[in-house]
Queue: 3 jobs
Job 1
Amino acid sequence: MAVLEIMTTGHPVLKQIAEPVEFVNKKIRQLLDDMAETMYKTDGVGLAAPQVNVSKRIIVLDDGNGLIEVVNPEIVKKEGAQIGLEGCLSVPELFGEVERYEKVEVHGLNRNNKKIKIKAEGFLARIFQHEIDHLNGILFVEKLVNPNEIMIHKKGQ
Ligand code: ZN
């Protein structure tokens, strides 16, 4: 396992549409392991492959209830709305309110190429939407409820 370097705002990979994974092989499983390690090391709740400079449709997340890995994640159902504060490892020190669906159902593949379906709501649903946005080249700062109300939190403050 390895901690990977996180790309930040301005890096072109963050604006690309990531490619679907055809088959989850050993290399992809290694990437999943490294992404999880990187997420935990940086105290993140989610990480998308483009954030570690890999333009593939892969996300890992953990809302505090355990690691979830999804390859080729797709939101197939969505309902309701929630507004909440978001930040991003690729947009250091900035936080702002974003509107998301309250509930989503996500389909994709697990590390063994098996189809998986996950129903998420609240914070977990928010993380899914944030990470899947990364696969489409979208950062949370483009979706702020009020773009004038971005907050800056410097370390040590
Ligand atoms: Zn992010």
Job 2
Amino acid sequence: MMTDTAPGPALGEPRLSLPLCILLTAVLALTGCGEPRPYKETRFMMGTLVEVSVYAPEKAAVQAVSRAFDRMAQLERVAHAGHEDSPLARLRRGEAVVLEGDLARILEAGMAVARASSGAFDPAMGELVDLWGLSMDRPRRPSDGEIGEALARKAGLALPSGACCPGGAPVWMDLGGVAKGYAVDMAVELLVDAGVASGVVNAGGDLRTFGRRPGRGIWKIGIQDPDSPQELAGVLQVGQLSVATSGDYQRYFEEDGVRYHHILDPATGYPARSGLRSVTVLAPDCVTADALATAVFVLGAEKGMKLLEGWPGAEGVLIKEDGTVLLTGGIGDGIRFERAGKGIRDQG
Ligand code: ADP
Ligand code: MG
């Protein structure tokens, strides 16, 4: 989502979805004469650029935004196994961890989507995600044998549920497909509690708007063209809503002409090849939008559309490999989508 002006990837290196917030910045800057301008701050965290943009008096804005970033930094330490003392790292070492608070809520949101998608979204993918190295910026193509072994171990793994898990066997939980959305929700909650009237929190394309945008009322959100991510496939116009995109162009490497991206099919252990290139999900909260986008990407167009149509409050914009754009039924009234870009054809 949004424009991506990062330079092309060197072969063998992951392409990171970097400044996904740039379009939003540009769009917000498009306010007419006399319209208030947002206070904005951008930081690199959770593996991406996070932009918080709010409409509030400067002093209050500076304070609230700083606290929103602190909250997201705290969540990064909870939900990412890269932090040695994080609960996820301890679970991987087979230590006992009490699943409570933020961690329990992130897992719960992920498990709801895991159940509804028959496991297309799977928070137990940690060992496979590590094997492919895509989250840690050292990508490599594992051997079929390594993938088979990790898949077999995953099949025997019961994710901890309830308040506590006993420790013992290593648990390879990975919340990369849902944690950013939760962090966005928590940042918005904090900003609203601090009295900020409106704004956007955008974590590399997983974003949530709140309040009415001064002047125009609606928020404009660009969806990247998977073929040339610096261009747009279309623009959404929304009110107060969350939007998250999963695509095969966000984080990938190429080897022998094959693209290996960062969304894995839990059934095979390989990057999902479902015929979709990009899935944008709109939902009232960002944690749900984030997990659903990953799930729909794995499920493919037919099953993915069914999942979205059956999920209360969720809508989607799906871009297939042939450039076809699919829209769920609720797009058109309230939420507008305008196509852009040459490569994008009419809905099939
Ligand atoms: P992004 O991180 O670019 O926002 P996603 O939200 O689609 O993209 O999440 C992809 C991340 O989720 C991967 O980097 C990995 O950590 C994790 N992941 C990969 N495949 C799955 C899956 N099938 N189910 C749940 N999580 C996944
Ligand atoms: Mg996701």
Job 3
Amino acid sequence: MTASETKALRGLYAITPDGIDKPLLLARVEAALRGGVKLVQYRDKKRKATQQAGIALDLRALCRRFDARLIVNDDVALARAVDADGVHLGGGDGDLAAARQALGPGKLLGASCYADFDLACTAVGAGVDYVAFGAAYPSPTKPLAVRSPLSLFGRCRDELGVPACAIGGVTLDNAANLIAAGTSLLAVITDLFEAPDITLRALAFQQLFEGETTLRRRTSLSHRNQQLFERAQRHIPGGVNSPVRAFRSVGGTPCFFTQGSGSRMTDADGKSYLDYVGSWGPLILGHAHPEVVAAVQQAAALGLSFGAPTESEIEMANLLCALLPSLDMVRLVSSGTEATMSAIRLARGFTGRDTLIKFEGCYHGHSDSLLVKAGSGMLTFGNPSSGGVPADLAKHTLVLDYNDVAQLEGAFAEYGAGIAAVIVEPVVGNMNLIAPRQAFLDAMRGLCTKHGAVLIFDEVMTGFRVGLTCAQGHYGITPDLTTLGKVIGGGMPVGAFGGKREIMEMIAPLGPVYQAGTLSGNPVAVAAGLATLRLIQQPGFHDALTRKTQALCDGLAAAAKQHGVTFSAQSVGGMFGLYFRQQPPHSYAEVMDCDKDAFNRFFHAMLAAGHYFAPSAFEAGFVSAAHSDSDIAETIASAEAVFKVW
Ligand code: PLP
């Protein structure tokens, strides 16, 4: 190895696990090499010297096949006997110079220097090619091992000019932090050799070093997310069943997920992520909460669907009406889109008027009347924001600016007698997060009452997410109709709309407004929702969620500030917004003013580090009760590492 090759040493360094049979050991090392491991360190304190020589010879042959290097731990004689590529020694042993001489040129010498920079200086003086420091995270195999400050790795690289290796406690979750801090070699045992698929795990580590494009070119190896995305596109438009999942906004390949548990989920490449999307809001308890899963299993065993009434629907309706005083009656549907679409038809049927007011940037599902953007002038009727929406329909929708009281007053002054409803996200979560001004919500309530229009709070996202009394309780406003979804299904397809009795009694079969659904009130979905609603009623639930979400925002904002990055963040209950802009925005125009490229850079850096944020600069994020304080701290630490090299 030439001096410049040595300096460029970079990648995954597999350390062989102790005490397993030779065939198993060789199979595991081969799997790791297939995933792109650059160095293998043979360490075997438990075997006799003669056995070690046999294994080391086989490992050397294996490494050569994959163009990787074999390093022998703590045994210069063995390394020479098998013609290994180098030796790794303890830096304090005092025999580094002798080892250097014995090994001769072209062989690698590495030294463990614990957390001691002076020791590293001495080791470099003695001719080592890389320096290993105890990693900054606890090691499962050596819980008492010394832990280095992250700053040591960059210092070693910059001041000593040799690659720094992190050894002990390195996992896929903390690897990106270590790399960002200046680590060139990640020495891993447990999180590599105990992974369900060693090759995929090695690939995931390598991805952190190599970036995605290089990885895509690695045709002989499997990169499952990429393969799945290519397959998906053959028969699913864009490869996804809902557009934002396609990563179009941020670029790159979407993750295909195979499993979720608590605050984490795992993708098809075996990489684990802390999840801040939570299925876009429903998973307020985290993934696969045992009580929710048990409720689903029990209900499913009794029958998947009846297309006829069940008792659990009554329980759900009673509970929703008890928790939200604005609801006298409620009807269950299967999605948020159905809930808002039905609420609008109901408001039109009830008032006998056609005009609808919505706000630019609010999303209420994909029904025709709601896929409308602002017209060309102030107070002009809207244009379709999607192909396939008739202009004739869009012309009934007036699109106004969020948080703009004067404009709302103007609209009522001009069109008041024809306005059937105002529909609003009381806290917007669909153009990133925008908090309402109290005066805006108050004015909306007053104007609807004065002009006989129906006020619809679309709480599909905010419902039970910002608090147990939803946004309407939080801001002290009583809407005429409320739409719900997400949390009330606990991860299963449930939506609902409800409100004043006199309005709700207009629905079929009581009244003339038609609305129906084959799977509405589905017993399995309702069971998941009821179990979720039961758990979130525990005292202090939303306080804890609010505190954690706020801590995330505060921590991210402080990390950005420390490194001079223009950034702000805010939260309401368990939902949050991140903005690459000085202050949180109040309107659609201000949201559009955020630095989208900066967000995309942040998104990908955090994704690589194992933190899954919404793949768009214009979506809110979600924290669940399953996120621990240390999860939040881990995310903040990763963001700090990202901002540091911004
Ligand atoms: N309303 C709001 C506020 C939403 O955020 C969403 C979805 O994100 C919807 C309605 C539509 O719900 P669904 O996707 O379940 O149809």
